[in-house]
Design brief:
Helices cover about 0% and strands about 40% of the residues. Strands 6-7-1-2-5-8 form a six-stranded antiparallel β-sheet, with no helix packed on it. Strands 3-4 form a two-stranded antiparallel ribbon. With about 100 residues, it is mainly β.
Length: about 100
């Protein structure tokens, strides 16, 4: 299935967190926190301003981002758990 977010929405895949501590202790799934990092899978075209012009998004497909703990709406696309969120829910782009 193809999915394209509308306006200023972004489709994000969470980056998996480590299941072990630095000391080697394995953290069970129930005790793990959801990661706040993700990768942009798809982005909308942008939002229209009051002047009628379309303003493009700052994020693009492939960007690694940081978002709020409770941001976005969880959806399942092609059996994969993803998030849809507005660009304003994104805290920043992680540059490596």
């Amino acid at each position: 299935m193809k999915f394209r977010p509308l306006h200023d929405r972004v489709l994000v895949k969470r980056v998996e967190s480590d299941t072990k501590t630095k000391g080697g202790i394995i953290i069970p799934d129930t005790a793990q926190e959801k990661p706040m990092e993700g990768k942009v899978i798809a982005a909308g075209a942008g939002v229209r301003g009051e002047d009628g012009k379309q303003h493009p998004l700052d994020v693009k497909k492939g960007d690694k981002i940081l978002f709020g703990k409770w941001s976005g709406t969880e959806v399942k696309v092609d059996g994969e758990d993803l998030l849809i969120m507005k660009e304003s829910d994104i805290l920043g782009i992680i540059e490596s």
